[in-house]
Amino acid sequence: MLLRKSCVLASLILAFSTTAFAQSSSDDDEWVSVDSAPAATSSSGTYDGSNDSEFANDEDYANAYARYKTQTTSRSEISRQRKEGFSQSVFVGARVQGGFNTFLGSHSDGWGAGWNVGAGLIIKISMFSKNFSLVPELTFNYRQYNYEKDMDVYTNKAKLNIMLFELPIMFRYTFEQYDLFAAAGLHLGLKLMGDTEFRSEANGGVISGNDDKSTNTFVSTNMEAGLAIEGGYMLTRNIHLNLRIVQCFTNLLNQGLTVEPSFTNSTLLTFYTNVGIAFLF
Fold first, then answer.
1. pLDDT at residue 42, rounded to an integer
2. Residues 176, 132: contact at Cβ < 8 Å?
3. CA 218 to CA 234: how far, in whole Å?
């Protein structure tokens, strides 16, 4: 009987011990899982501005994050605006032109219409506002001037060829609503090379056989300066057509080196007009 009671008591003690151990194991597992979750979150948890973030209810973190986003956005926006502003305010391109020229000034009668053609580089730089811009150019230009004057029994004829670099510095105003622009500015020319030809031809065979031809008996100067005005139309933002008129106020004739009597007292002021097309990038 005593042995039987001892067995029942041992069985009860073993049952309670197993239940307590199982409960302890369950509690341990639950504690470990709860503890591991924050550890994983803290290792990768950063405030992303959402309500799901562990720092969503932390005012200091929220304010710091807001300042960070504002500063980052401002820097990137400033950088973007600088790049876009530079690209929109400066255009570089090429321009080709062609037209007609003559001389004005004292004793310049006899000089008829010549022609000119050229090509070069152009820069458009916005100033003050989007409507005002500075437009300098560097153009290689070839010009030919023709002279013919009747002297009764003979006719004097001459030709002047000149190649030069031109530097127009134009100030432009753009009428965007009409796709038109107008400009005015200074025009400079630097001679690269030039040559002249002069001859006298008999009229009606009176002095036939005595025609006279000479070269470089009158000489052009190395530099000229004047004023230019122009108007134009924008086919697109990057393709512009323009009509330019130039009047120089310096004498293209080098009187000190001129020995041809017909031009010793002449003042040859270049006047020309041309049409150009510019391609801007």
1. 40
2. no
3. 42
Within a 10 A sphere around the Cβ of 101, how many other Cβ atoms? 21
Residues 229 and 191: their CA atoms lie apart, in Å, by 22
Residue 196: pLDDT over 70? yes
**Per-residue pLDDT at 250 exceeds 60:** yes
Q: How far apart are CA 20 and CA 136, in angstroms?
A: 95
Q: Tokens standing for 63?
A: 């304010």
Of 55-59, 207-211, 221-225, 266-270, which gets the smallest average pLDDT?
207-211
CA-closest candidate to residue 90, choices 98, 82, 99, 100: 82
Tell whether the model's pLDDT for residue 76 goes beyond 70: no
Helix (H, G, I), strand (E, B) or coil at 259: coil
pLDDT at position 66, please?
74
Number of residues written out for the chain = 281
Strand, coil or helix: 109: coil
Report the Cα 218 to chain-centroid distance in Å: 41
